[in-house]
Every structure is written in structure tokens, then in C-alpha cells.
Amino acid sequence: MKILIINAGSSSLKYQLIDMQDESVLAKGLVERIGIEGSNLAHKYGEGLQQKFNLTTAIPNHTEAMNIVLAALTDKEHGVIADTSEIGAVGHRVLHGGMKFTASCVIDQACLDAIEECIPLGPLHNPANLQGIRACQAVMPNTPMVAVFDTAFHQTMPPKAYLYGVPLEYYKKYSIRRYGFHGTSHRFIAGRINEILGMAHSKVVICHLGNGSSLSAVVDGKCVDTSMGLTPLEGVLMGTRSGSLDPAVVECIANNEHLTPTQTLNVLNKKSGLLGLSEYSSDMRDVRAKAAEGDEKCKTALDVWAYGIRKTIGAYAAAMGGIDALVFTAGIGENDGEGRESIVDGLEFMGIELDKEKNARIRGEECEISTPNSKVRVFVIPTNEELAIARDTLELVTK
Ligand code: ADP
Fold first, then answer.
1. Rounded-to-integer distance, Cα 392 and Cα 146, Å
2. Contact between 113 and 124 (Cβ < 8 Å)
3. Does 150 qualify as catalytic in the annotation?
4. Domain stop point among 106, 127, 149
5. What is the pLDDT confidence band of residue 386, given thresholds at 50, 70 and 90?
6. Pocket of ligand 1 contains residue 301 by CB under 6 Å
7. Cα(284) to centroid(ligand 1), Å
8. Which of 95, 185, 250, 340 could form a disulfide with 122 if both were Cys (CB 3.0 to 4.6 A apart)?
């Protein structure tokens, strides 16, 4: 079966067409500036997805975006399928499943209603995700669809991990609690590390380090804690997000800069993190290159970044009462050997011993990067959220 994966944002739509026979990606692409002047499609296909097709045209809404995607996928020149009927199912990435979704689900009216009910928790993403689903339903009314939630994997957390120390009535009335994100990636990695370890019982810390970053503590394949919270703003320092801070900072910035709470949160989401501290870039490669030239702000930003992640690893080892394996994944986790070394530097007391030469060499491939003597095994494992969504979709529609 061929499965189309859709990740819809408010003005963008990412897609991948995966052939589940060999889990190969037939085509992928991105529609940008939906409903804005200068909308365009960037479509990749062919051997190694090296061939490109770009189109700039008016794309007023998500339904039109889907029409353009399907036209690209079935085009005689740059298409990869003859007809849309070859698409057996569609898997949609949905940000917030609140407490309603502990796993992926086939999209029916009840599922759509529940995603809608989670809008207050994901006010920016869920409406866009719903637009993507409705657009697909409009252009492919007979194709089964599945929703895969960023929050679902973390729903196994116990109350001691997900409750905030605020009046309980806010949890009851507004569902304010830790949810966690990147769940599809954490679940994919948790599954793979369990295969590798082959242990009946295991304690693992997963570091998903990309533009957005989150860690999870996973016991026997189940999430027991994670660093992101009610929103993806909490946790470790990220590309443009501050991560955790004293909530009083919000009022302090708002008063001094004459900003509303929403504007202040925008600063914490979009202008903080590596970007805010380095006053240079949110991109790890840029910050690392500038730090190598001796830039003090970039060096400090990298220190803050690594220190926060190191502390979280220590906290999760304590939370789980031990740690068998540590895994790095996502853009930074998979590619940045220097970053990985700086994070585990000083964790030898916990039994973490990195093979520094191997660590420096490994980029974007699965590999054990600890020494044979290391009590804690350390791995790089590339994540693949689209494939995880596709596997769930296949399983649910063929059940
Ligand atoms: P997103 O959260 O947007 O999916 P990614 O997982 O793609 O992000 O990660 C993007 C980050 O990975 C960027 O900060 C980028 O600089 C970093 N990155 C990619 N390749 C490297 C590399 N070779 N060395 C250091 N950082 C890298």
C-alpha cells in the first residue's frame, strides 16, 4: 500500500508518499504561503529524491494545496503514481491530542470532534491540522485517514510527572498539565532502542534535539516523563525557544518592554533560545561555526544549551532509578558530535563513557557511540516521524 503523510500548518503543508512494501519514500514536498501572496510548491521525486519540481501559483486555501499536491504526485512528468486511487490511506500529523488520545486513531466524526475539543490546548496547530484533514477529505473522500498525535506517547506519564504545582482546579477545569510533544519521534526511537537492547526491562533517556528539542524518560518502552509541557515551550533551550524559566520572567519582560502576555510568549517562543543568547542565529551549525571563531556569546549559548540537557539527563536517571541507555536523535542529536560530547562531558560518574573518536565521526546513521566498558550504552539513532505515522496508518486501516 502507498500511504500519503500530511503535516499541515496554518500556511504550509508538508507531504510524503511512502510505499509500505519497502518503506521507501516515493516523493515528498512542501506547499508554502497558502493563502498568502507568492504561494508555491516544492516537490521532490525520483532516485534519492534528487529530482525537483517547483511551482509558484495562487494557492488560496488548504483544499487547493491538496489539489496541487495530488496533481504533482500524478503528473506525467514529475509524478510517481498514475492515479490518486493508488494512495491507500492518508496519515495526518496532529499536534495536540490532549488527554483524549493515547494512541493514533482512524479519522471519523468522533475523532474530528475530539481534535476540535483540543483546540484550546493547541490553538495554533490543531486548527491548521484540522484544515489539512478536511482538505484531504474534500479531494479524497473515499480514502481512509488516520490521525497521529504528537502528545499520545507521553500519556503513560504518572500524575507525579504531569501535574504542575498549581491549584488542582485549573487541571480539572482547563486541563492544565504536562503533555509533552515529539511523541511520534520518541515512540519510534523507544521501539528501536528496545529492539537493540533486547532487555526485558530497560531505562532509557531519549534526547530529541532539533530546532525544537525534548527529552523523555522511558521505562520498559513507556514514557514516564518528558521535558516539554502544556506547550512545546517548556524544557531545554531550543533554537528560538527559551525552554523552562521562572514564570515571573514573563511579567518582568511584559512590564519592562510594554508587551501583552501573548507578545511576551512570542518572544519566548520565537526570539529566545540559541538565537536570543547568541544574538546571531537559531541554527546550531551557525552558532557552532561562530563559536569556533571565538565568539563569546555563541560559546556561552552552547554552554547553556549543553548544561540544561545534561541536567535533564541526570534528573531522568534519578527519576527512573538508573539508566541503561542514552539516545541522541533529530537534526542536532544525529549530526552534531561536538554537541553530544559536550552534553555527556562530566557524566562519567553515572557510568557514561563516550567513544570520542567514533562520536566525532558519526553523522545521521545508527551507531553505538559509547565504549565497550561504558555502563550506560549511548547511541545515535536517526528518527523518522513520517515513517512512524505511515506504520500506524497502515496498521489501523488494515485492522
Ligand atoms: P526541526 O525541529 O525543525 O525538525 P531538525 O531536527 O531538522 O529540526 O534539526 C535542525 C537542527 O539541526 C538545526 O539547528 C541544524 O543546525 C542542526 N544540524 C543539522 N545538521 C547539523 C550538523 N552537521 N551539525 C550540527 N548541527 C546540525
1. 8
2. no
3. yes
4. 149
5. very high
6. no
7. 6
8. 95
Q: Which of 12, 213, 335 to mutate to test the pocket of ligand 1 (most atoms within 8 A of CB)?
A: 335
**Quick one: pLDDT band at residue 74, thresholds 50, 70, 90?**
very high
Judge if the beta carbon of residue 362 lies within 6 A of ligand 1: no
Taken as a whole, the chain contains a residue count of: 399
**Residue 332 in contact with ligand 1 by CB distance below 6 A:** yes
Whole-number Å distance between alpha carbons of 216 and 149: 16
CA of 184: how far to CAs of 174, 206, 300, 389, in Å?
Answer: 25, 12, 31, 7
By percentage, how much of the chain surpasses pLDDT 70?
100
Q: Is 211 in the pocket of ligand 1 (CB under 6 A)?
A: yes
Q: Which pLDDT score is estimated for 399?
A: 87
Indicate if 225 and 102 belong to the same structural domain.
Answer: no
Q: Catalytic one among 113, 150, 336, 392?
A: 150
Structural domain of residue 73, as residue ranges?
Answer: 2-149
The response to whether residue 271 sits with its C-beta less than 6 Å from ligand 1 reads no
265 Cα: distance to centroid of ligand 1 (angstroms): 23
Asked whether 210 lines ligand 1 (CB < 6 A), one says: yes
Asked whether the whole model's pTM tops 0.70, one would answer: yes
Number of folded domains that form the chain = 2
pLDDT tens-place string over residues 182-212: 999 999 999 999 999 999 999 999 999 999 9
* CA separation for the pair 164, 364 (Å, rounded): 36
> Cβ contacts of residue 65 below 8 Å, gap of 6+?
13, 31, 34, 39, 41, 59, 135
List, for residues 230-246, the tens digit of each pLDDT value: 999 999 999 999 999 99
Question: How far, in Å, from the CA of 285 to the mean position of ligand 1?
Answer: 7
pLDDT at 202: 98
| Greatest Cα pair distance in the chain | 60
pLDDT at position 24, please? 97
